[in-house]
Amino acid sequence: MNRLANIELLRVTSMVGIVLFHMFYHGNYNVEIESVNNAFVRYVQVLGEVGVNVFVLITGYFLSSKIKLGFDYKRVLKFVSLLAFYSFFLAVFTALFNLTDVSSPNLLLTAIFPDKWWFATTYLFLLLLIPVLNFILQKSHKLFLGIILLYACLILCITPTMIPSAFGEFIIRNLLIVNVMWFSYLFLIAGYIRFYEEDFSVSPKRLMFLILLFTLLEIVVTNYLMNRYDLPMFGKNVPYYYDKYYFPTFVLSVFIFLLFKNISFHSVWINKIASVVFDVYLISDYPVIRECLWMNVFNMSAYQQKWYFIPLSIAIAILVYCVCSCIGFVRLNIFGLKGQGRKG
């Protein structure tokens, strides 16, 4: 199956949104100042979480299968190789530019073990679970699978959204387990969409309306909850209703995925740009690099009251994406390691 430019475009735009979110989440932005810029920053977090969900939905859609497949160990090895490559390369790079203490006894361990990225770690567990998830999709009757997914949504998404205080501490204490469960659930949702595609033939106009509706819901509800409960958006314990599990965020992610899936077009350039999209994440969210980027090089707190804050933020996110992509293309041409590729 050839790569679909509509899905590749979705991956690219999602990553730009994630980079934009990291800009504020890991920076010095002061969210206590009420302004249009502040409202923009709040919604950027939603876009970042939507981007995470969309990435997993894309994986589930293209790696779910109606036929029995063996464990794809080559895909896992390629992915681990990509993580190991960037873990070593970025450790050496930051050491050469004195961004890392070269005398640290942990430097060698840091360079060898690729455990710097929460998404990549969770995604690796998802790759290992794909045979089990495909078995569930293949052996479950349509009605039974639909009921199971609805119950899972009630447990993982709707109930915690309604009473976040009862689940926040549990999620924080068991973050890896919860994330793996959530990624697995998204994989099954995407697989269900692929298996029963005729049930999801929604017109682009209707999807655009639903996306707009849930976008407004996100803005109104999250700002209302922020003001009512006086909870800091970028504190150590980010409110549950801002996260990827939050019901409106989840539904918005599915609608956006369906919109792009149902719009078909071809573009060699978009496919090429998207081929290194995971490199952008690994480079820009490497702990030392992201601290340097968002705390020093692009400290947006200095511009948060400026009229050009929003276009400047978007331009910086695109710039970072382009620079990281160039590094990715160099890596791809010299070393290969197509780690995050997919069928489709």
Short description:
The chain contains 14 helices and no strands. It has 344 residues and is an all-alpha fold.
Explain what the structure shows.
The chain is an all-alpha fold. The chain has one domain (5-335). 71% of the residues lie in helices and 0% in strands. The chain has helices at 5-25, 36-63, 73-96, 107-112, 118-139, 142-162, 168-173, 175-195, 204-229, 247-261, 268-274, 277-284, 287-297, 309-335. Helix 2 packs across helix 9 (204-229), helix 3 (73-96) packs antiparallel against helix 5 (118-139) and helix 9 packs antiparallel against helix 10. The longest helix is centred in the N-terminal third of the chain and has 28 residues, at 36-63. The N and C termini lie close together (5 Å).
Helices and strands, with pairings:
Elements: H1 5-25, H2 36-63, H3 73-96, H4 107-112, H5 118-139, H6 142-162, H7 168-173, H8 175-195, H9 204-229, H10 247-261, H11 268-274, H12 277-284, H13 287-297, H14 309-335
Helix pairs in contact: 1-2, 1-11, 1-12, 1-14, 2-8, 2-9, 2-10, 3-5, 5-8, 6-8, 9-10, 12-14
